[in-house]
Specification:
Layout: H1 2-16, H2 25-29, E1 43-44, E2 58-64, E3 82-84, E4 87-92, E5 96-100, E6 107-112, E7 124-126, E8 139-143, E9 148-153, E10 168-170, E11 184-185, E12 191-193, E13 196-199, E14 202-203, E15 215-219, E16 225-229, E17 261-263, E18 268-272, E19 294-299, E20 305-310, E21 326-332, E22 335-343, E23 349-353, E24 363-367, E25 381-385, H3 406-416, E26 433-435, E27 449-451, E28 456-462, E29 466-472, E30 484-485, E31 488-489, E32 493-499, E33 516-522, E34 527-533, H4 538-541, E35 556-559, E36 563-566, E37 573-578, E38 584-589, E39 599-602, E40 608-614, E41 617-622
Parallel strand pairs: 1-35
Antiparallel strand pairs: 2-41, 3-4, 4-5, 5-6, 7-8, 8-9, 9-10, 11-14, 12-13, 13-15, 15-16, 17-18, 18-19, 19-20, 21-22, 22-23, 24-25, 26-29, 27-28, 28-33, 29-32, 30-31, 33-34, 35-36, 36-37, 37-38, 39-40, 40-41
Length: 624
């Protein structure tokens, strides 16, 4: 009876749910996409686990992804599983796609794809086609760090022979022909729209010319290319005029290295694009450099441009745009506006009308300082939203250093003694410069989650900076003096860090805390509803310093019962917070850190599960 009533409640909820949600209750109770739904809300209408009972949550099962014999060091896993039609799918850092029973973790099958490198953060599912010549099975798509995409039969774990070359598609052709040794991969989740699977790419940050960051759509049944969008506009295309002095030619970067969001009502693909290469020097690419550091909206069926919004002009800080935008409905001035929220590495949050990319709460161009690097081009202004306020440290002043012990104080004072900062978007000069945020952000690829009942958007940030300066290539201070690395050209000026602003002897940052925070933003007002320190450093807690927060990476999941689940912190904890207040309700120790996004779903047995990837273990929790 309890399970029957739960299902009725889910159906009743769906009648009132946000338009970005799926229409079918089965899809709501599972986890069929990287961010749960096309609008990337990471919101589940499940409510079995509540603030009242979450303290009793226990581990239900754990799947060890390590093979019995493993000798090589591997890049850590940050994968988000899928749960579809009663099967869970996830990637491991040991070159495997695995299918398990979501209620028990029992292995059903695995597919070893044999491509080394960092595993993709997510997967995409296509239900298949059963008509005429396009007959194809339900398919799991995922990419590899060396530039391939696989199509695997979701039922059998075998390659789909009708897709590309026996289920394997090379994504490199045409993208790096002039630069055969340049980096090109796919470690973000593809996204499926009708009969298309759409891919971004992972390309170089360092160096100027190299692999292209174009976004492409492929036929889900055959693997044939359907459309291409040039992320660095070619002659005659919108945005080409923002590349002066032929800086567009053979330009690398400007890529979607995380993944996408879809507005299925309008057929709009929303693409968060990264920096142009080289992402620390831009003297050879003067101009604002569209569509780098830009949220771009395309017609998902054709790849035609609808609108764009650039968050950083002429990036010189590696402030690319990894988080997916989240689709929300905003009540503003008495009207319901279809909107989106785009977080950034800069710690700025842009709330835009998703129909046209116009800011809902206003954005103004503010003057920013100009640097002193010879030949560099500096944008005179950068965009700042009027609401919400900046949610990560973006400036630094002398004296804002920690002094927990005499030794730590000395390390930080020595590191920062000759450094300066000129506020937000401080240019890196030829002398020591303090940068906040650093190249990790701010906000990163984990993105946010959204509770439509509260109207709250949840996101987590960290404050980790750099003490750095620009040096001339080939000088005594340049550790890589070669002008060409492989076949990638290095710029005439390169970044050199003075040291890590986190004391290597203790792991304690040098700037005053908090070093990580968790936020709830009321989308209907643009104001911060609550904010709390997020993450802990136990060695400082033993000295009496609490609530410092910490570095964190990975995102959250919101549920209809009023809970927010998130891992993300290096203290190996998995947390549940009260969505309305930010109060910590439950946490569990994990065998390793969980720099991944969790999921939640309803098992066949009527139980709600919450699952997180903790590096070498996929772990499920449920009520006893």
């Amino acid at each position: 009876m309890r399970r029957f009533l739960t299902s009725i409640g889910i159906v009743m909820y769906l009648a009132l749910a946000s338009p970005v949600a799926f229409a079918q209750s089965k899809q709501q109770t599972e986890w069929p996409m990287f961010a749960h739904d096309p609008g990337s809300t990471r919101y589940s209408p499940l409510g079995q686990i509540t603030p009242a009972n979450v303290a009793t949550l226990k581990q239900a099962w754990s799947f060890d992804t390590k093979p019995q014999v493993e000798v090589n060091n591997r890049a850590e896993s940050r994968t988000t599983p899928l749960v579809i039609n009663g099967v869970m799918y996830f990637l491991t850092r040991f070159e495997e796609l695995v299918a398990v029973e979501p209620e028990t973790g029992k292995k059903l099958w695995s597919f070893g794809y044999g491509h080394a490198g960092r595993p993709a953060k997510g997967l995409a599912y296509w239900p298949g086609a059963n008509t005429g010549a396009n007959n194809a099975p339900a398919t799991i798509f995922f990419g590899t760090d060396d530039g391939f995409m696989y199509a695997v039969n979701a039922k059998t774990g075998k390659l789909v022979p009708g897709f590309a070359k026996e289920g394997e598609l090379s994504l490199k052709a045409g993208m790096k022909d002039k630069f055969p040794t340049a980096l090109y991969g796919l470690n973000g989740a593809p996204i499926v729209f009708k009969n298309l699977v759409i891919t971004g790419s992972h390309v170089q940050d360092v160096g100027t010319r190299g692999g292209r960051g174009d976004v492409r759509a492929w036929d889900t049944a055959t693997g044939k290319l359907v459309w291409t969008f040039h992320t660095v506009p070619q002659p005659g295309e919108t945005g080409h005029e923002t590349w002066l002095d032929d800086g567009w030619k053979d330009r690398s970067g400007a890529n979607v290295w995380s993944t996408f969001t879809l507005d299925t009502e309008t057929g709009t693909l929303l693409m968060p694009l990264g920096s142009a290469s080289d992402d620390r020097y831009g003297g050879d690419r003067p101009g604002a450099n569209l569509f780098a550091n830009t949220l771009v909206a395309l017609d998902a069926a054709t790849g035609k441009l609808k609108w764009h919004f650039q968050t950083v002009h002429h990036d010189l800080w590696d402030y690319d745009l990894p988080p997916q935008p989240t689709l929300v409905d905003v009540m503003h001035d008495g009207k319901k506006i279809p909107a989106l929220i785009q977080t950034t590495k800069t710690g700025l949050v842009f709330i835009l009308d998703r129909r046209n990319g116009k800011p809902i709460y206003g954005v103004e161009e503010r003057a920013v300082p100009k640097g002193d690097v010879p030949g560099e081009w500096y944008s005179p202004t950068q965009p700042f939203p009027l609401k919400p306020p900046p949610l990560a440290r973006n400036s630094w002043k002398p004296g804002e250093l920690t002094a927990f012990t005499p030794e730590h104080k000395k390390y930080c004072e020595d590191l920062f003694q000759n450094a300066h900062n000129e506020g937000p978007f401080s240019p890196v000069r030829l002398t020591d410069t303090v940068i906040f945020p650093g190249p990790d952000g701010g906000f990163n690829w984990g993105g946010g989650s959204y509770d439509p009942k509260l109207g709250y958007f949840f996101t987590n940030s960290h404050d980790q900076g750099e003490v750095t300066k620009m040096v001339q290539r080939g000088s005594q201070e340049d550790t890589q003096k070669a002008a060409i690395v492989g076949d990638v050209e290095r710029p005439p000026y390169v970044r050199k860090n003075a040291g890590n602003p986190v004391n290597p002897a203790t792991g304690w940052p040098c700037q005053s805390p908090p070093w990580g925070e968790l936020f709830a933003i009321n989308v209907h007002t643009g104001e911060v509803a609550w904010r709390i320190p997020f993450g802990r450093i136990e060695s400082l807690e033993t000295l009496g310093f609490k609530d410092t927060g910490s570095y964190n990476i990975g995102g959250s999941v919101a549920t209809a019962s009023g809970l927010l689940f998130i891992g993300a912190t290096p203290d190996k904890r998995f947390h549940a917070y009260d969505s309305k207040t930010g109060k910590l309700m439950w946490e569990a120790m994990l065998p390793d850190h969980a720099y991944a996004n969790p999921i939640t779903y309803l098992g066949k047995n009527g139980k709600q599960y919450v699952v997180i990837d903790a590096t070498d273990h996929v772990i499920a929790f449920a009520l006893p």
